[in-house]
Amino acid sequence: MEKVQFRKFIQYMLYILSASVLGFAITPYKPIFTGLILGTVTSFYCMWILHRKINTFFDRVLKKQKVRSLGTVLCLSAVALTMVIAIRYEDYVNIPALVFGLMTGHLVVMIIFMLHHTSIGRKRGE
What stretches pass through the bilayer (predicted)? Predict the structure, then answer.
């Protein structure tokens, strides 16, 4: 992801996170918004790790150095820890909302890609 696209990703994720916190504060559906907040934070963390690792991956490839992993184990362990917390405190965390929160990072990346792709198409006259 380019710098501009990653900044948009951060911006959209913070909008979603702030809307979730606002929903937690205002509505009586606290377990749903707790799961959504927890999942969104974990998704944001995993995407940030992936972005950082991909940048170092390409730098190492260009310098013809040894390439390490992309941080899959770190991301999976963060998701596992999130699920352990959700199962441990299942009265306070809604698990379907947590799963949806875990998917928000991927959904935001797809939306940014589609917006970027259609704006490039319009600029070219396609």
Answer: 9-26, 32-50, 70-89, 95-115
CA distance 48 to 55: 11
Helical H segments across 27-94, by residue range = 30-62, 72-88
Cβ atoms of 77 and 42 closer than 8 Å: no
Write the Ramachandran bin of 119: left for phi over 0, alpha for psi from -120 to 50, otherwise beta.
Answer: alpha
Looking at every residue in the chain, the average pLDDT score rounds to 88
Q: Residue with structure tokens 């965390």?
A: 93
Query: Which residues contact residue 85 at a Cβ distance below 8 angstroms, ignoring those fewer than 6 apart?
Result: 38, 93
Q: How far is CA 97 from CA 83, 100, 116, in A?
A: 12, 5, 28
With vertex at residue 109, the alpha carbon angle to CA 114 and CA 116, rounded to the nearest 5 degrees, is: 30
**What's residue 120's pLDDT?**
62
- Round to whole Å and give the CA distance between 87 and 16: 23
